[in-house]
Write a structure and sequence with these properties.
Length: 126
């Protein structure tokens, strides 16, 4: 089965920070508020994103290893990883803020995610 994830930070020459998406445990994951750091499943509710993600989806906030940036680029070139959609900026920023504050996010990951948030703010500036 394919796995879906959201890239939270992909700085040049650094590991790629990501979290998996899930549609499991729908009745046990809150939708409102969308950012939930409690038990049993910390996550961020993304809604129904469409296309291949036609069910309610959450960003799973459990920590994990980051992608080595060289491997990530190689997987992209081999089409083992592909982009299926881009989140609206408002939703992406909220998801990033939620992930940055998650208990399982390391300090290094938080710094990289917050750098991504700052870049998003710069893109919207005139």
């Amino acid at each position: 089965m394919p796995k879906y994830f959201l890239v939270l930070a992909a700085p040049y020459r650094h590991d790629v920070v990501f979290r998996f998406l899930t549609s499991r445990y729908e009745g046990m994951r809150p939708e409102d508020p969308p950012c939930f750091h409690g038990d049993p499943y910390a996550g961020f509710f993304l809604g129904v994103l469409g296309g291949e993600l036609g069910r309610k989806s959450w960003l799973d906030l459990r920590g994990g290893d980051d992608f080595d940036h060289w491997d990530f680029r190689r997987y992209e070139a081999e089409q083992r990883i592909r982009t299926i959609l881009a989140l609206p900026l408002v939703l992406l920023r909220s998801a990033l803020e939620c992930a940055a504050a998650a208990e399982d996010t390391t300090r290094q990951q938080e710094r990289l995610i917050r750098d991504s948030i700052a870049l998003l703010a710069d893109q919207r500036a005139p």
